[in-house]
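Handout, section B. The chain below has 195 residues.
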Amino acid sequence: MTFLNFAICNSQSFINKIVSCAKHNADEKLRFAVGKQISDSNFQFIKSKTIIEVYNQTKDKLKRLTLDEFEKSEYPATQLWINYKVIDEKLVLTELSFPFNLNCTTPWSLNDTKEIIEPYLKVLQNKTKVDLEKAIEIAQENGLRNINEWDINYEKGKLIWTIKDQRTKNQWHILKIKAKTGRIISDYYHVIPMD
């Protein structure tokens, strides 16, 4: 009788098989959550951004490595995250990282997946008046020039775009825009104190 230990592993071929299995499972979960057409055309798997968590026994510490770094590592893998870009009109709405155990299971249920991607799905289904391109345009019209980050999420039951313009190393100009109307609901600066 043969027993396989899925808890930890440092075999590159084993990890490649788990990544392939995890991608298949994530693809299926996405198809059930958003439908085949949106899943196939708007969710792009990025193998190079797969993260492998390894265990360094001498330091009793977990560390996250890329697939390339893992190939050169002597530490055993404990879990991994596979990454997808969520794309709308050639713009990346967000990146989504699915966690997976080494037995190719994810702690995310179908409902968890739906809840996480629901704000992006509204955009992909054209259920918002303001898409990402329009939100960026509104932000630029209101003084944001170096836009380097954005997101869409629910705030107080309303779908809101958050557009960020990094002004200095520790200062951002942030605009919050209603996805339904395009109205700016918040315009402020955020400063992180530097040591």
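Note. Strands lie at 43-45, 51-56, 61-66, 77-88, 91-101, 147-155, 158-168, 171-178, 184-191. Compare this with the example in section A.
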